[in-house]
Amino acid sequence: MSSSLSVVGGAGIVAYVGSKHAIIGMTKTTAVEVGGRGIRVNAAAPGPIAGTTTFKLAEQASRATTRRSRRLFPSAAMKRLTM
């Protein structure tokens, strides 16, 4: 499971973003390796979801980060990423 942050990035979450971006790279490489045999390789990369972790991160975020999040994820379900 990857994440939409794997291609966007974010301050203070380098390990998370790096691990999620690695999944994208492994998915692409595996697809090239086995695609010739008719095998498809996919990675799910969901965006933000309403949950405890998201709410805690939003509470800790500065106003600038909140504005950036609104620009990056304008279609977040029910706008729950906002503070």
Supply the key terms.
single chain; 83 residues; mainly alpha; 4 helices
What would a concise description of this structure say?
The protein is an all-alpha fold and 83 residues long. The chain has helices at 5-8, 14-34, 52-60, 63-72. 53% of the residues lie in helices and 0% in strands.
Polypeptide structure, described:
It is a single chain. This protein has 4 helices and no strands. The longest helix is centred in the first third of the chain and has 21 residues, at 14-34. The model has no long low-confidence stretch (mean pLDDT 80). The relative contact order is 0.16. With 83 residues, the protein is mainly alpha-helical. The protein has helices at residues 5-8, 14-34, 52-60, 63-72. The chain has 2 domains: 1-46, no CATH class; 48-83.
Radius of gyration: 15 Å
Shape verdict: elongated
What composes the largest sheet? none
- Mean pLDDT comes to 80
Helix content: 40-55%
Backbone structural class: mainly alpha
What is the oligomeric state here? single chain
Terminal CA distance: 26 Å
Helix/strand order: HHHH
Q: Would you spell out the secondary-structure blueprint of this structure?
A:
Layout: H1 5-8, H2 14-34, H3 52-60, H4 63-72
